[in-house]
Design brief:
The structure is a single chain. By secondary structure, this protein is α+β, with helices and mostly antiparallel strands. The chain folds into two domains: 5-155, 2-Layer Sandwich (Fructose-1,6-Bisphosphatase, Chain A, domain 1), CATH 3.30.540.10; 164-272, D-Maltodextrin-Binding Protein, domain 2 (3-Layer(aba) Sandwich), CATH 3.40.190.80. It is built from eight helices and 14 strands. The strands form three sheets. A seven-stranded mixed β-sheet has the order 3-4-5-6-7-8-9, with helices on both faces. A hairpin with a 5-residue loop joins strand 8 (144-147) and strand 9. Helix 1 (5-23) packs antiparallel against helix 2 and helix 6 (200-208) packs parallel to helix 7 (222-234). The radius of gyration is 18 Å and the shape is globular.
Length: 277
């Protein structure tokens, strides 16, 4: 089985519909909606997350009745659902609202991500911006593109390689263990510019669109990275775990570096993940 461009468009419509009906009506209504913490004060969930995940899951199962559906919020209740990613003939991985802290803060910087895997290999990714109502897509081996509300399609391409000292990086050190946290913090000044958006959905879209050079992550839950990883790869980028091994959505540790090409990847690893650079 292979997902087609028609399948991609159908999934995009499912995501966009959930954004219109479940997410945006609740945006900037924090006092009226339920917000709860999960693993920490930095990890929150709202009724918008849960309603959007339910709507997307139900619609995907109507379109693909035999697929496994792994949602971030559902997996919080049933962690064993993660095991299906590596074995299912077709599985969908859903992050209903990536950047929930931005959402609850009233910042229009959040997104909805859906990835599809076949026996553990990522074959499709979509990242929807509910605010601008556009969607970035990737199909394995067929490129990455942005579909806008006016029906136009724009191919995505990562930024050209530049020296490390000129790299514009998305790099968050919050989830790094010590000693890595201190080392990376001390080495960030070797980059040209660094930021962290609290939203992997928009960070991956930025990198795949050529608006930044480097993505640096440590926490690797599949709903945060599967769709974006494929988007970056199909836009021409190179990525790997910190030890150089390939990323797979069943890998929850090992960090992830995404760069314009393999040479840039090795250069930035030397600069920020080596004591003394």
């Amino acid at each position: 089985m292979k997902l087609s461009h028609a399948d991609a468009a159908n999934i995009g419509n499912i995501i966009a519909e959930a954004a219109v009906t479940e997410i945006m009506p609740r945006f900037r209504r924090v006092r009226e909606i339920e917000v709860r913490t999960k693993t920490s004060a930095f990890d929150v969930v709202t009724e918008a997350d849960e309603a959007a995940e339910h709507a997307i899951s139900a619609a995907l199962l109507r379109a693909f009745p035999h697929a496994a559906v792994i949602g971030e919020e559902g997996t919080a209740r049933d962690p064993a659902a993660l095991d299906q990613i590596g074995t299912a003939e077709l599985a969908f991985i859903i992050d209903p609202i990536d950047g929930t802290r931005n959402f609850t803060s009233g910042l229009p910087l959040f997104g909805t991500m859906v990835a599809a895997t076949m026996r553990g290999e990522i074959v499709f990714g979509a990242i929807h911006d509910p605010v601008c109502n556009d969607t970035a897509f990737a199909l394995r081996g067929e490129g990455a593109w942005l579909a806008t509300p006016d029906g136009k399609r724009h191919d995505l391409k990562v930024a050209p390689p530049v020296p490390v000292k000129q790299m514009d990086a998305i790099i968050g050190i919050n989830f790094l263990p010590e000693h890595l946290r201190t080392m990376v913090a001390g080495n960030i000044s070797r980059l040209g510019m660094s930021a962290w958006l609290r939203c992997a959905a928009h960070e991956y879209r930025m990198a795949a669109s050529g608006h930044c050079h480097l993505l640096f992550y440590n926490k690797l839950m599949p709903w945060d990275h599967a769709a974006g990883w494929l988007l970056h790869r199909e836009a021409g980028g190179y990525s790997a775990h910190f030890d150089g091994s390939p990323y797979r959505p069943v890998n929850l540790t090992g960090g992830l570096l995404c760069a314009p090409d393999e040479e840039s990847w090795h250069a930035v690893k030397q600069a920020i993940l080596t004591p003394g650079g």
